[in-house]
Amino acid sequence: MACSGYHRLFMISLSLLLISVIAGVSALTMADANAFSSLSAITPETGNAQDRLPAIQNRLGTTWQAYKSRFIQADGRVKDLKAGSITTSEGQSYALQRAVWQNDRAVFDTVYTWSVNNLQKPRGDALFAWKWGRADDGAWRILDKTAASDADQDIALALLMAAERWQHPDYKTEAMRILADFWQKETLETPFGRILLPGDWQIPPEVETRQLNPSYCAPYAYRIFAEADPGRPWKLLIDSCYTALSQSMALAPTGLPPDWVEFSLKTGEYSLFGHPTQDDPRSDFGYEAMRAAWRLQVDAWLSPAGNKASKPLREKIGRYMMRYFWLKRAMPGPLTPEGIERKLLDSNAVYGALYPLLAEQHPPLEPVLWTLALDGWQYNATGPNAGLWQHPDDYYGQNWLWFGLWLRLQQLTSPYTSLQPKTLLARYSGIQ
Questions:
Q1: Which of 90, 186, 229, 259 is catalytic?
Q2: CA distance 205 to 177
Q3: Is position 279 annotated as part of the catalytic site?
Q4: What is the pTM of this model?
Q5: What's the first-to-final CA gap in the chain, in angstroms?
Q6: pLDDT of residue 421
């Protein structure tokens, strides 16, 4: 559990935040920011982020071991325990990336083999069916053969990482097969540029709109793909993704990205579902959209180009979330475009996705976030759920808290201004 210094910091922060709410604070002023900055001076032992490095490194290893035990079967299938133990291509992709970063080749090979045999081969191409589980007749099989572009790009990226870390070219061969089908089936050339589709959905050609998920956009991945696969113009996806994120964020009064948007193939315009006349949760800043903050922060960390491109969007998200945390003393559940909390937070995933961004933009917040969600009572140091965060069956939350810690470790130990390795892939793979 957290040490007394963490608890002291947390109680001090809560007291200051409560005072601000009672006083009717409605926006974060410079005076508020200065007052919040004084927290690090009150508890200097927790104010230096570098002092937390050993704890972060230890937590990454411990939680990976616990995650494997609870969520990954011996045959390589990742179970979503909160959803009837279904398996998704997303879950498989998360395990593959974490296995590379943890240098766990045995788990990587097992997870990838299961994914190929059960999600890829039945489709007949190089992409992966997004959903597998128990059907109504009791048999376990693919439930939806449609591919999901976020998982497919993450699996390809994990294979490139594996080839780099373990110097095994067959992994890259597999990645290149995926990238070829990904480009053909999960991106679309339009009069306004090549866009990222959410999957290989079968949509009649006469339909003039497409549903897009801005949080699927991974500009850092396309920079790495451009190195590995120079025959395709991956920069087109980088540009269109930044356009999608910028324009979709501009649609909401909060300035936050939505889970889903509509894109007009006729006008090139983005629009929120139902807004402003109807209430549609697809337009919320929810558990999908929160990933955009992490992906933007990865692009900022990976390269100077990514840092420059992502900066205004990261700052926009950071300003709103800093103000929200200042007033509410917690991260939100899904928010409507107007900033109304649709329901209470039921997954700590949002803390992990936002932790690297907020820690970099507002350093005094870092020890508070660490105590509130990544350590303290939210982390099980002992007992039957040791090595897992609350809630222990929330596979999504376990992953995104871990990703947040991983990225924060990279920010602290390998900023983009430091000496660069030969390739972006080596940098992302954790090879220095």
A1: 90
A2: 26
A3: no
A4: 0.90
A5: 32
A6: 60
